[in-house]
Amino acid sequence: MNHMTTDSTCIDNCSNCHKTCLQTAMTHCLNMGGKHLEPEHFRLMLDCAKICETSACFQLSGSKYSGDICKVCAEICTACADSCEEVGGMEACVSACRTCAESCTAMASHTH
Amino acid sequence: MNHMTTDSTCIDNCSNCHKTCLQTAMTHCLNMGGKHLEPEHFRLMLDCAKICETSACFQLSGSKYSGDICKVCAEICTACADSCEEVGGMEACVSACRTCAESCTAMASHTH
Amino acid sequence: MNHMTTDSTCIDNCSNCHKTCLQTAMTHCLNMGGKHLEPEHFRLMLDCAKICETSACFQLSGSKYSGDICKVCAEICTACADSCEEVGGMEACVSACRTCAESCTAMASHTH
Amino acid sequence: MNHMTTDSTCIDNCSNCHKTCLQTAMTHCLNMGGKHLEPEHFRLMLDCAKICETSACFQLSGSKYSGDICKVCAEICTACADSCEEVGGMEACVSACRTCAESCTAMASHTH
């Protein structure tokens, strides 16, 4: 088989996680400062937004590398959720990241 | 005022149009060939996906240039909807593009 | 004529400005703090990186909307250069933004 | 150590591979048709452009996940180079992909 079956739930979870992390980083964290702007945390928020956007693109294109991207995406989403829990008061991000990590892990195991 | 009010409906319309155009181009059009793969049409589908993704990013970041991007986005979405109507059998794209063009036009008029 | 002539100099200037702004924002500014992390300045740095990346993509794809994107790109690059001058100590960004703004302005006037 | 040392050569190789694959796909392949537009080949060209752009972004941001992205990037670049060799007449792509795969492989082994 040439290209993987797309899973609209995983695409939606990636898209939602991209939106939540980017918006929270660039409005909430950037304005709050303090530990919200600590370089490692803030960089992770933008890493997470970027890999989720990339993962959605690969899945939308029907790429056979979607599983490889989803695997990295799940790892970064999990790290981002952990970091957001540590910072505190970022429940929407934690939830979007955990949901995305879960569906990306499932997607990663289906392919290749 | 420093950054524009975000409009979650316009962000969602841009995100949905990005998804619909990218997925339709890379699965439906690429497999159908013929007028679906005519360079001007196909390039417009990917232009539309790209500007919608960019427009969503600017709005999510609370950028004060969101209105400028939305203006270009509305123009490209309208052209893409027209092209999809001409090709035929692409109702989901036509609808996503028209909806996105409408909210981007409204957003463009609110800013600066 | 169907798609614009690509100008590899303008593509290279956009690509270079994307790299310089993204790298400076995420390493230098994020670590320096203070006025380097003032929300309006920092957001502008990432806006500039994003529109330059988008502009390069449109030109690389031979899009007939390249001129429209270049016009917005020139505006954002100019604002970013001004903001970097005000912050101070950001000569590489100022130079990359001015160079990109100049070639994008020329590109914008060639098209449509 | 918190974030990896950036390697400007690998960033440049990713950026160059992104440009070469995107431009070749959207101008040369889209116009040539035939095996240049065979879905699996064409999708791989755009996958390669996208992962190279993502890889450059992670490295420019000083992300500690750069090595993970570079590993996937090297895999996709190698597959794209092979596919371009099979199609024929795509020497610039083959060369950009091989060069990028090599520096991404080195970068992947340095991290974590």
Question: What do these coordinates show?
Answer:
The structure is a homotetramer of 112-residue chains. By secondary structure, chain A is mainly α. Chain A contains four helices and no strands. Chain A has helices at residues 8-32, 39-60, 66-87, 91-110. The longest helix of chain A has 25 residues, at 8-32. The first copy, chain A, is elongated. The termini of chain A are close together. Chain A binds chain D through residues 2-3, 39-40, 43, 46-47, 50-51, 54, 57-58, 61-63, 65, 68-69, 72, 75-76, and chain D through 2-3, 39-40, 43, 46-47, 50-51, 54, 57-58, 61-63, 65, 68-69, 72, 75-76.
What brief labels describe this structure?
mainly alpha, 79% helix, 112 residues, elongated, homotetramer
Please outline the helices and strands:
The structure is a homotetramer of 112-residue chains.
Chain A: H1 8-32, H2 39-60, H3 66-87, H4 91-110
Beta strand % of chain A? under 5%
Which two chains share the most extensive interface?
Answer: A-D, 21 and 21 residues
Query: What's the total number of strands of chain A?
Result: 0
Write the element-wise H/E pattern of chain A from the N-terminal end onward: HHHH
Q: Which whole number gives the mean pLDDT of chain A?
A: 93
- The total count of helices of chain A amounts to 4
Regarding quaternary structure, what we see is homotetramer
Helix content of chain A: over 70%
Unreliable spans of chain A are: 1-5
Radius of gyration of chain A: 14 Å
**Terminal-residue CA separation of chain A:** 10 Å
The assigned structural class of chain A equals: mainly alpha
The main β sheet of chain A shows up as:
none
Morphology of chain A: elongated
